[in-house]
Every structure is written in C-alpha cells, then in structure tokens.
Amino acid sequence: MNAPETPTGDLTLRTQAMPGDANAAGDIFGGWVMAQMDLASGIRAAERAHGRVVTAGVKEMAFAKPMKVGDTLCIYTHIEGVGRTSIRLKVEAWAQRYLSPTMEMVTHADFVMVALDANGKPTPVPPED
C-alpha cells in the first residue's frame, strides 16, 4: 500500500490504543482497528442518512504499519457516493504516535453502509440538506 502523507476526509473518531487492545508483542489487534473504522463509518453514515445504518460490506483491507499501545488512532471518513439506500465511504486509519506529532497511515478500506427504517428494512437515504 502506497500511503499518502496526509489524511483524506474528515476526522470522525479518535481513540487511544490501550494494553487490553494489544497482543503479547504490544501490537494492536487488527480487528480492534477495523472495529474503530466501522464505528466511524456508522457515525458518518448515520449523520448523512439522518437515521439508523448498518454495515453491508467492507472491501479489502491490508495493514501497512502497526499500531502500538499508547498511539492515538485517528479515523478519517469521506462519503464517496450515495445510492438509493446505501452510502459508500472511504475510510483511513492513521496512528498518531505516542507523545509525538508523527502521523502514519495504518490501513484504509471502502465501507458500504445501508440506511434502515424503524422495522430494520432498507430505506431510502434522504437528499442532502
């Protein structure tokens, strides 16, 4: 993965990686990073849909750099497109290294979220405000 030097999209979520999120070597589990990316996608998509959304799919994800305990995970999201009931987002995960201004891209992926009505059925995404 050829990572850009600066994040793309809007900062949607920041959280610090803690010892409970790491393996014995001190590297943060990839599944934890992916879960944070999913949370950020849900936040951004729910704002756009003005309601409930669920994750419908995630395209390929490869990890370029490890996260370490103490790093701040910064998730950036950008809405790439809106279908009738779906929202496609580009999501980037960046590590702000512990006690440093250094930022490095950890991974990125495309997420597809689907808007749901009160009964859990897909519902149209409203036009932009």
What does the model show?
It is a single chain. With 129 residues, the protein is α+β, with helices and mostly antiparallel strands. It has 1 helix and 5 strands. Strands 1-3-4-5-2 form a 5-stranded antiparallel beta sheet, covered by helices on one side. Strand 4 (86-96) and strand 5 form a beta hairpin. The longest helix has 20 residues, at 30-49.
In short:
With 129 residues, the chain is α+β, with helices and mostly antiparallel strands. The protein contains one helix and five strands; from the N terminus they run βαββββ.
Write the layout of secondary structure elements.
Layout: E1 10-16, H1 30-49, E2 53-58, E3 72-82, E4 86-96, E5 103-115
Antiparallel strand pairs: 1-3, 2-5, 3-4, 4-5
Helix count equals 1
Shape: elongated
Number of strands: 5
| Helix-strand string | EHEEEE
Helix fraction? Answer: 10-25%
Which structural traits does this protein have?
129 residues, elongated, five-stranded antiparallel sheet, alpha+beta
